[in-house]
Amino acid sequence: MRKNRKALLPLGALLAAVPGALWASTGGGENLDLTSHTVGIVALVIFVVAYGFVMAEEFTHLRKSKPVLLAAGVIWAMIALVYANHGLPHAAEHAIRLNILEYAELFLFLLVAMTYINSMDERLVFDALRAWLVRSGFSYRKLFWLTGVLAFFISPVADNLTTALLMCAVVLAVGRDNPRFVSLSCINIVVGANAGGAFSPFGDITTLMVWQKGIVDFWTFFLLFIPAVVNFVVPAAIMHFAVPDAQPAASDEVVVMKRGAITVIVLFLCTIATAVSFHNFLHLPPMVGMMTGLAYLKIFGYYLKKTFDREVAYARRKTDYSQLEVGDIVPFDIFRNIARAEWDTLMFFYGVILCVGGLGFIGYLALTSEVMYVQWGATTANVMVGILSAIVDNIPVMFAVLTMQPDMSIGQWLLVTMTAGVGGSMLSIGSAAGVALMGQARGMYTFFSHLRWTPVIALGYAASIVVHFWVNGAQFAILAPK
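^ thats the sequence. predicted structure below, dont judge the formating
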């Protein structure tokens, strides 16, 4: 404890030196402009260093949540000490509570979605789909298109990471002996999953954040469907000719879904409908509808437990007894599926939201907004957001834009939602799907194998922007709500 106090002394002395000239009046209260002060610069450096560790996760094997959690705590501690030294001991508290509210809504929404995905996985829904694709006897080129199209249409409901991993499992099962097919298919899957997530409020964190903020309503997101299709089809059509024109050996693997699998899928769709209805008609946060939908799954899980004997009998009906696993005769446990949520990702979101919120409270986002959305213009800024998301995760980028809250039309908000979602496809490290597939198809799908096709993917990126302006031109005349 004494060591911790000694460590805080230099920091306290630094923060106490902040001059009173940093006061800046902002409407209902007093804020300090720390952008040019040592504390602000140190906070920015801390965030950049922490995010450097996030980007190097593949090489360091340090989970991405750890550096940003630490950075968030240090940044807000410095901010709080500054304000306390200027007679505003509760200013940072009020500001951080707003960030925590933003995070809580996102956290609860994603926790329910992840629980449903894990439940479908536990009921063997995805394994059954994978086995069907593997034993269907499609050619490499047909599988290239089929896995890409399925990634495009599954990711609007499931997250793009789960979708990409599922499709990559199919690709590896049928083409492990053909590295070129695996590499091209993985690129296509990443592009398809990211493009598919761009036109649905549930498809990507970026669309989810914009929807929950109330800037774009649920059905308006589907105006991005045609631009998203273009974003996927343009590079896929060019890569098609590089895919080996051969026939892989078919498999006879059969996976039977566990009892209740179809019901879980239906309940997930009902949960989505509940979230949309709560938001559109009752003006409640979407996460309230999602948490209500979690109750559907909990009650159904109770039913599965009470009728467990029937489930054991169902498992024993399998013709291939070698497929019978421990999971087939273990009762459905909702809390096991909750525990299997991507907790590192959820903690990462907490760290990112608080880090970006802290930098915004310091004053950096106001400066950035001035440069991007006033000096550059909304269109240039939103296109650059997509390019930036190929290097930096789209979560902090989109949260920064939402925190800036620039005055833009609905068309421009749709544009930045799409670019932030699909821009990550240009590099393999630009999205969670790409990073995960580099690990799953290690040695066959790599950073450089993806980089060779970046110009083609960039062509699809540019084409989708042009098509968006063409088909959704009327939306650029409608000002978004504040």
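The longest strand covers residues 23-26.
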